[in-house]
Amino acid sequence: MAHNIAAPPGMVVMSAITMLTNPRPVDAVRGTRNVLFDANIYVNDEHRQTTLGVLRYFISDSMTNYPFATDDFTPAFVIATISTISETFPENLISSGDGELKVSDYAFMGDIIDLTVAHNDISKKKLPVITMTGFVKQCDMRAHSFIVAASQYNAILHTLAPLTLECYIPEDSKRWPSNKKPKPTVNSAVSVAGFLHHIKRTPAKSIIAFELELTSLAYINRSAGIDTNHTDTSTSITRPHTLFNYDDATTQATDSEHITPPVLTTTQSTSLHVDNKHHRDEDNPADDDEQDDKPSASKKKKL
Fold it and tell me: Which residues make Cβ contacts (< 8 Å) with residue 166, sequence separation at least 6?
C-alpha cells in the first residue's frame, strides 16, 4: 500500500470512458455471463498515456447478445467501484491477449455497476472522474495536497481491497484561491471528487497512489443526526414542462435499442458467446459472483 497507509472501510467509484477488450469468463464452469474485461482509461501511467485495469461485469439480460470483441476494443461508458490491484491477484485471471502481461502491468481492479456501449467516434481522451468517501491520512498544506484512503469489497477476490488517493489543488485553481484552499485534518472523514491524472508507482512498479485533481470536497460529520421533526408541507403535484413524465411513456426501450455497436472487420468480430444454461440469477443477493496532447492539470472541464 501507498506509504504503508491503512485504509479503513469506505467507497471509491470511477466514472470513465473505457476501451474494453479481452472478455473472458471469471469461471467458465459457472457460466459465461460473469466476465472479466481488460479496461483501458486515459490516465498517465509511467511513460504512457494509458493505464490498465481488470473489471468484472455480470452481463445484463439486455446485453446477452452483444458481440463484445475479443481481439479489438469496445468503447464504453463505465461506472465501477475500484481498488488498487492486489499484488497477489491470481495470474490465471490476467489476460493472455498480449502474451506477456503481468499483474504489475495493471493499476486497478473492480466491479462494473453500469456499462453503456458508446459510439466509435466518441472522444476517448477523457480523464476519469473518481469519487471517494474515506479518511484523511496525511496532509501537506504547503503543497496543497492531502492523502485519502479507503477500502471496499471486491467481488473478484471476495475481500476488502484498498485504494489511496493523493489529492492536489492546482496553484491557479479558480475554485479555491491561494488563501482559501481547504485544509482537511488528519483522520477526518471526507468525501472527495475530481479528475484522475496519474498513477504513482515505485521503481518496482508497485502502486503508491492515484493522483487526483480535486474538484469537490465535503467534510462528513460523524455525529450529525437526522432531523426527524421535518415535515414535507408541499401539496402541489403540478409538473414543470421541463420535467419528463416517465409514467406517460408508451414504450419501454431496452439498453440494446440505444446502442450503436462498434464497426468491426470480419476478423475483429469474434464475439463472446453467452451461455445461459449455467449462469445464476443476477438478482440473487446471496451470489457473491454477481456481485494527441497531454492534458493540462489545471484546465480540466467536468465530464
Answer: 2, 145, 146, 147, 200, 208, 209, 210, 211, 212
pLDDT value at residue 300: 44
How far apart are alpha carbons 300 and 213 in whole angstroms?
9
Banded model confidence at residue 277, pLDDT cuts 50, 70, 90: very low
81-90, 161-170, 172-181, 188-197, range with the lowest pLDDT:
172-181
DSSP of 24-40, one letter per residue?
EES-GGG-SSEEEEEEE
Q: Which amino acid is at 147?
A: I
CB 8 within 8 A of CB 18: no
Mean pLDDT of 183-199: 95
Q: Residue 185: helix, strand or coil by DSSP? A: coil
Tell me, yes or no, if the pTM score tops 0.90. no
Q: Do 109 and 86 touch, CB atoms closer than 8 A?
A: yes
Give the integer Cα–Cα distance in Å for 8 and 218. 18
Q: What is the DSSP letter of 176?
A: S
Question: What distance in Å separates the CA atoms of residue 111 and residue 11, rounded to the nearest whole number?
Answer: 12
Give dist(CA 245, CA 228) in Å, integer.
30
Contact 220, 133 (CB under 8 A): yes
Tell me the sheet residues that pair with 19: 40, 75
Question: Would you call 3 helix, strand, or coil by DSSP?
Answer: helix
